[in-house]
């Protein structure tokens, strides 16, 4: 399993953090890139000082004492000449978690000014799975139209809307619900939340 993971600047750093924590336990490798807004919001929401995607990985490793089975390769958000800017490199799927309305707007219009946007655009053109986890509320009609355009282009929209029927006890449980649903779409076995048994 080789993934591209993009962290964009929406609220909901917990979804990124819990997804990365769970991914650490999966054999494989991923490319990781984070926008400046994502890094800033991560700092604010976790009341910590992170300045880079590397810092976010270190934070996750330390906070949850993960034993890394997964290898992350950090890529510079501004390096549109990076390896993951080209479809000549192969990856199985890309996840943008969380995803801002700004990045949704760029992706739905084919704008590729940074590495998240470029790698996501490559994922769509190469017909690779692209999972977008948008976070905004309420949505205006521009957001809705852009999300629909992305769905029509082949992306999967997985809103940051955790369910409550699994009786979450902690905020991490809510993060794990979304991480688990991303895993389901990636075809990775997961035990991140209790399954509904009927
Ligand atoms: C604390 C904070 C929270 C934000 N939350 C959201 C959000 O939930 N959804 C959203 O679309 N934008 C949100 N924004 C605005 C985006 O970060 C901003 O539009 C930024 O340009 C997104 O760029 P990026 O997608 O390249 O990271 C937030 C900004 C800040 C500072």
Automatic annotation (TrEMBL):
It is an enzyme of class 2 (transferase). Keywords: Flavoprotein, FMN, Lyase, Prenyltransferase, Transferase. Residues 1-185 form the Flavoprotein domain. NCBIfam families: PRK06029.1, ubiX_pad. InterPro entries: Flavin_trans-like, Flavoprotein, UbiX-like. Its EC number is 2.5.1.129. Flavin prenyltransferase that catalyzes the synthesis of the prenylated FMN cofactor (prenyl-FMN) for 4-hydroxy-3-polyprenylbenzoic acid decarboxylase UbiD. The prenyltransferase is metal-independent and links a dimethylallyl moiety from dimethylallyl monophosphate (DMAP) to the flavin N5 and C6 atoms of FMN. The lineage of its organism: Bacteria, Pseudomonadati, Spirochaetota, Spirochaetia, Leptospirales. This is Flavin prenyltransferase UbiX. GO terms for molecular function: carboxy-lyase activity; flavin prenyltransferase activity. It catalyses: dimethylallyl phosphate + FMNH2 = prenylated FMNH2 + phosphate. Belongs to the UbiX/PAD1 family. FMN binds at residues 9-11, 35, 100-103, 135. Dimethylallyl phosphate binds at residues 165, 181. The keyword Lyase applies. It comes from Leptospira terpstrae serovar Hualin str. LT 11-33 = ATCC 700639.
